[in-house]
Design goal:
globular; five-stranded mixed sheet; alpha+beta; binds protoporphyrin IX containing FE; Cytochrome p450
């Protein structure tokens, strides 16, 4: 919804943080502002569906996508056509049906997570559950995409070094965006020189090498052989009718890294934030446990996913968790080939324009008392007839909407059901600021650290 402004309608800033700071603590500028010399930003929750609708066939803005550092991956494909071509062969692997057929992977990894939680229970030490969530989601996507589970859950430190590395990379996104040439130069350095300059990049190089080997292994399994039942999204991609350059080792490895990053951190972050809020609110915890006890009579045996999705309070907690974790906090910039009309403004073709989920989910008119975790809001019938799910944009909308949405949903439902049905947890050394969105690195990050919620297992 459009809100009143006491700022001029054009505010120029090169930093999203400047705009966030002034918007969060003051009446909003806008509703349409020039956020830096090149980009427009619109703050009007009712316009989201119109901007991102498929029919607009929008490109992404190269000035933004270069922050990913890997131009060949799906999420960084600027051209609408190139994106469509790349997404087509991937999409079937993330359909609801495909995800329902791989639930055994999630369930098997959840058993491993439960085992680790019991270890901490037996030792009486606090568990970095947030890290456990990163290990869980990384294990799931590595198994599903590459048929090669990383088994971070089996590692003593739950793969903390791997997590730190990915976070370090994601935190570089603004640097890469502004100093792309320097990033490319460093990337091109031979391994011995790079590792002499920065020994901590050894793990990054090892992960990339492992990815290249995985792609090579899958290529050998599919090439020249009749279609079989090779597991893994990549086997399917290599069999697809993408043109050969799109199947090159470099692009496949980059796409693999893209899936690993996109498929792990966001879901883990959402799990961490949702877990924090449930544990921090005894009434919410009690209601969730009551409903889960009915839906899951035997604590160790999960019912079908559809039955879990039908548990009203679990649904409400998932929605509210997605709302307060925002998913992607960065502006999703788009470029249209034809002029776009917004209210009385005509946005010329070629001008990058975007919106931000942070402002969608913080809209006080749609989500009153927006800073509070209130699952009930998803169960109440609103007198003004507003359908809240229309305003939940954690996964984006239109043809660039998160491809992993069904997988993420399955992970959220199955994991929260397992955690709150099987375990009695207590927050340990975790404040709201430990998990709450504070910094925008395209993904949302809290103020300090990023290992998420810590718990004592009773
Ligand atoms: C709660 C969890 C998740 C959230 C909130 C989320 C959010 C998003 C959003 C907002 C986008 C659009 C980005 C843009 O427009 O630039 C996106 C894209 C994407 N997401 Fe997710 N995501 C989640 C989980 C996952 C999972 C589990 C995967 C699995 C691999 C995944 C893979 C991707 C990919 C590949 C894209 C690029 C899609 C494209 O450009 O067509 N995400 N995600």
């Amino acid at each position: 919804m459009v809100r009143a402004s006491r700022f001029p309608s054009a505010v120029t800033s090169s930093s999203p943080l400047v705009v966030l700071a002034c918007v969060r603590d003051s009446p909003l500028p806008g509703p349409i502002i020039r956020i830096n010399p090149n980009e427009l930003h619109i703050q009007d929750t009712d316009f989201y569906d119109q901007l991102y609708r498929r029919e607009n066939k929008l490109d992404k803005y190269p000035g933004q996508t270069k922050m990913f550092g890997v131009p060949g991956v799906l999420v960084a494909s600027d051209s609408h056509e190139v994106h469509r071509r790349r997404r087509l062969p991937l999409a079937p692997f993330f359909s609801r049906k495909a995800v329902s057929e791989m639930l055994c992977v999630i369930e098997e990894r959840l058993k491993a997570l439960s085992g680790r939680i019991r270890d901490f229970q037996n030792n009486g030490t606090a568990m970095p559950l947030g890290l456990g969530y990163v290990a869980l989601t990384t294990d799931i996507i590595s198994e599903y995409a590459l048929a090669d589970c990383y088994h971070l859950l089996e590692r003593e430190d739950l793969g903390a070094d791997y997590h730190q590395l990915l976070v370090g990379f994601v935190h570089s996104c603004h640097f890469i965006r502004h100093f792309t040439w320097l990033f490319n130069f460093v990337q091109a350095l031979p391994d011995p020189v790079l590792l002499w300059l920065q020994p901590s990049l050894k793990l990054a190089r090892n992960i990339m090498k492992k990815m290249e080997m995985d792609v090579h292994r899958l290529r050998n399994r599919v090439e020249g052989k009749p279609p079989g039942t090779e597991p893994g999204i990549f086997a399917g991609l290599l069999r697809s009718n993408l043109p050969p350059p799109e199947k090159s080792a470099d692009r496949m490895s980059s796409e693999g890294m893209g899936l690993l990053v996109a498929g792990s951190e966001t879901t883990a972050q959402t799990l961490s934030i949702t877990t924090y809020h449930i544990l921090a609110n005894p009434n919410i915890l009690a209601e969730l446990r009551k409903q889960l006890q009915v839906a899951i009579p035997e604590a160790g045996t999960l019912p079908p996913l559809a039955d879990l999705e039908a548990v009203p309070y679990l649904y409400a907690c998932v929605q509210e968790g997605l709302r307060l974790s925002y998913g992607i906090s960065g502006r999703l910039m788009r470029v249209s080939h034809s002029p776009l009309q917004y209210q009385s403004w005509m946005i010329p073709a070629g001008v990058p324009v975007g919106m931000t989920t942070v402002f969608m989910h913080d809209d006080e008119d749609v989500f009153p008392d927006h800073r509070s975790f209130k699952p009930e809001r998803w169960l109440e019938k609103r007198e003004d007839g507003i359908r809240l799910d229309k305003y939940l944009t954690a996964f984006g909308k239109g043809d660039r909407q998160c491809i992993g949405m069904n997988l993420a949903h399955a992970e959220l439902y199955l994991t929260l059901a397992t955690i709150f049905r099987q375990f009695n947890l207590e927050l340990f050394d975790t404040e709201r600021s430990t998990v709450q969105y504070h910094r925008d690195y395209f993904n949302s990050f809290p103020k300090n650290g990023c290992d998420g919620v810590r718990v004592l297992v009773k």
